[in-house]
Amino acid sequence: MSKKANIICISRTYGSNGKGIGKAIAKELGYDFYDKDIMRLASEKTGLVEDYFKSDRAPRSSLLYSLAMGLYSGQGVPIHYNDSLSDDRLFEIQSEIIKEKAEKGNCVFVGRCAGYVLRKFDNVLNIFIDCDIDVRVKKIARRMEMEAGVAKKLIQKTDKKRRVYYEYYTSRSWGNPAHYDLCINTAKVDEDGAVAMIKSMLDLANR
Q1: How far apart are CA 20 and CA 139, in angstroms?
Q2: Do the beta carbons of residue 124 and residue 5 sit within 8 Å?
Q3: Are 198 and 127 in contact (CB under 8 A)?
C-alpha cells in the first residue's frame, strides 16, 4: 500500500458478528462507520425508499439472480424485471456514495461490496469475517428464539443472498481468501480478539 491504510471493508457471513466487529473497530480507531447508512444516503440522493437498495433485493430483477436463487420458472420475464430504475444503476448510486465517503478516509464499511467498489484505492484493508456454522446456528437460535433447524435455514438463505449479490456485481467468489487481506473465524476469537487482529494487521500494513 503506497498510502496509509485508513479504510476498512468488512464482508461477513450471517451470524459471524461482522457488523459488531465493524462497529467496535470503528469506535476503537475513531473512524466513521457505514453499514445500512449507505442505503439511507442512497435513498436521500434518489428519493427512492431504502428497500430499493437492500443487498438481497438489488439484482433480483436480473435473470442470472433469479436463476441462482431459484426464483425463475423459465416462463415469461422474471418478476421485478421492469423496475423503473435499473438494478445496475442502483448499485452505481451506492458505489458513488461509498467512494465519496472513502475519499475522506478514516472509515469502516460493512457489506455493500465495498471492498470491490474501492478496489482501486490503495489505502484499503479488506477483511472477511466467518464463523463455524454450528456456532452461528446456536447464536441465531438463541437471539431470535427459534429452533436450531429454522435458524440454520435462515443462515443458509441469508448467506446465499449475500453470495449471489456479491458475485453478481463483482464476478468474484464471495469468501475467497485471495480477495481479502485478513480472514477471521469468530468461533476461535471473540469480538475483542477480532478487533485486536484487525488493528495489528492495520499496523503491519502501514509500516
Answers
A1: 14
A2: yes
A3: yes
- DSSP codes, 10-29: EEE-TTS-HHHHHHHHHHHH
pLDDT in tens, 20-67: 999 999 999 999 999 987 878 777 777 766 666 665 544 544 544 444
Instruction: Locate the domains of the chain by residue range.
Output: 7-205
CB 90 within 8 A of CB 49: no
- Note the Cα 102 to chain centre separation in Å: 16
pLDDT one-digit tens code per residue, 171-187: 999 999 999 999 999 99
List of E strands, the chain: 7-12, 32-34, 107-110, 124-130, 182-185
Please tell me the CATH superfamily of domain 7-205, with its number: P-loop containing nucleotide triphosphate hydrolases (3.40.50.300)
Chain-centroid distance of CA 27 in Å reads 19
> 51: which residues sit within 8 A by CB, 6+ positions away?
57
d(CA 4, CA 207): 9
How far apart are the C-alpha atoms of 115 and 130, rounded to whole Å?
16
Share of the chain above pLDDT 70, in %: 79
Residue 118 phi, psi dihedral angles, 5° rounding: -100, 25
